[in-house]
Specification:
Rossmann fold; Arc Repressor Mutant, subunit A; five-stranded antiparallel β-sheet; five-stranded parallel β-sheet; 242 residues; 13 strands; alpha/beta
């Protein structure tokens, strides 16, 4: 079995189960540049040097949890994160996504499923258009995946960045929570409770912007009972092409 051809990418695999870790390493290493770790401490050390685009984390680790490690890594970069877990309850699934993970993979899973999920996540990372969006005090660098507000870097998780970026690119358009789940998370169907994850992440974006400027108008406007729209009021908003 081989993985479909795709752009070479760095993947960090973190799992303390040696047989599973070795199997996944051999499989993923056919196409990607892969490093692995068996615990959180080692994973963070490798993370700093390796700078992966995607991290695949087991939920249970000897010295931490995949959720805590996910949050710690996303404080440092906007890395993509997928959580491996044998938990299937809706509450666990929601907690995984609230922690900032981009996807979760339920155990047991097939290598075919893993290949597809990895490809979908990496496609998300490659889909950014090489240009910059400027909305007066808000600048979104789609090449460097960096957001500046009042000339200060706005530290966002990968999902927060994806939401802000998607809405900004489609400025003025209205999107339901269900549509945003499909476009950003890639799910065709979702529970009503999972739609609220959009509210959680947008709330985080607004809070981080308010920490820089409490008087800032809400670039992301709420459409009651429906969803959101990006509607900056400044007349000098523009797109800067490379």
């Amino acid at each position: 079995m081989t993985i479909s051809a795709t752009k070479n990418a760095k993947i960090l695999l973190v799992d303390d189960d040696a047989p599973i870790r070795n199997l996944l390493y051999r499989f993923l290493n056919q196409q990607y540049e892969v490093q692995f770790a068996a615990d959180g401490k080692t994973a963070l050390e490798i993370f700093e040097e390796f700078n992966p685009v995607l991290v695949i984390l087991d939920w249970n680790l000897p010295d931490t949890t995949g959720l805590k490690l996910c949050q710690e890594m996303q404080k440092r970069t906007n890395v993509l994160v997928a959580i491996l877990s044998n938990r299937t309850a809706l509450e666990d699934r929601i907690n995984i996504l609230k922690a900032g993970a981009d996807d979760f993979i339920s155990k047991p899973f097939s290598l075919e499923e893993l290949a597809v999920r990895v490809e979908v996540l990496l496609r998300r990372a490659r889909s950014v258009i090489p240009r910059q969006l400027v909305f007066d005090r808000l600048e979104i660098d789609l090449v460097g995946r960096e957001v500046r507000f009042h000339d200060r870097i706005l530290t966002l998780t990968n999902l927060e960045y994806e939401i802000l970026c998607f809405l900004a690119i489609h400025s003025g358009e209205s999107w339901s929570r269900k549509q945003l789940i499909e476009k950003i998370w890639g799910w065709k169907t979702c529970y009503t409770s999972e739609e609220r994850l959009v509210d959680v992440h947008i709330g985080h974006i607004r809070k981080k912007m308010a920490q820089i400027d409490q008087a800032v108008p809400r670039f992301i406007q709420t459409i009651r009972g429906y969803g959101y729209t990006f509607a900056p009021i400044d007349r000098h908003d523009r797109v800067v092409s490379n």
